[in-house]
Amino acid sequence: MPLTPTDDIIRPARAANTGVGAFNVVQIEHAEAIVTGAERVGLPVILQISENTARYHGSLAPIAVSALAIASSASVPVAVHLDHAESIELVHEAVDLGFTSVMFDASTLPYAANVAATREVTDHCHRADVWVEAELGEVGGKDGAHAPGVRTDPDEARAFAAATAVDALAVAVGSSHAMLTRDAVIDLGLIARLKDVLDVPLVLHGSSGVDDADLAKAVAAGMTKVNISTHLNKLFTRTVRERLEAFPDTADPRKYLGPARDTVADEVARLLNVLAGR
Length: 278
Fold this sequence. Notes:
By secondary structure, the protein is of the alpha/beta class. The chain has helices at about 5-15, 30-40, 50-55, 60-70, 90-95, 110-125, 155-165, 190-195, 210-220, 230-245, 255-275, and strands spanning about 20-25, 45-50, 80-85, 100-105, 130-135, 170, 200-205, 225-230.
């Protein structure tokens, strides 16, 4: 199946009030696992590559080309998304490589500067039919819109979306990035209010910190795109650790990366069903 435009995955999910899983790719095994899990349950999925991951690999192209190839050979709809890009140059590179969407993160900038930078990115991406997600945060927040205690103001969000012409908005409703426990308290009422005032889909970042029941409630309240990374990385690393502890003389990395890949595929399949309300 050819690479699927992100909007072709998000739009029907939003109309059906279901969620779409967007999972981060750190290395090729992640991309393989995510697509395998999606194929197992017959649901669309989004592969995400962050600016941090591009930096880890030395540049965006090596991991991007791999993810794009895996996505294009999938039997279910798969989009490839640039996650948390602060560099406009990296956004342009992702568009040139064939990404179907980008998330431009200027959330640590003052509001007016965030609007101006995001609008510049949106104009460039829309000329290439690339879908754009943005984040509305507070000035100086270490985690932008997802610093502890931050909440998105519905009126400001509506104004921001209109001024920037973005296609989706990441909002702060109680989750936080890189949580190792699944005990975040989600403001379901705020999600519902944001859905009512915004004409674009809502995105939940930091979803690794949200348990299954609250993920389902967040989707029911209005979330569409649900980003999950740390939770899968924990499972991947735990499996690698267990395999190496059980077989300490292992030299072939396929002997521990393969089982870790399988573990992630199982969890992706399970989470996609949760988000789809199955």
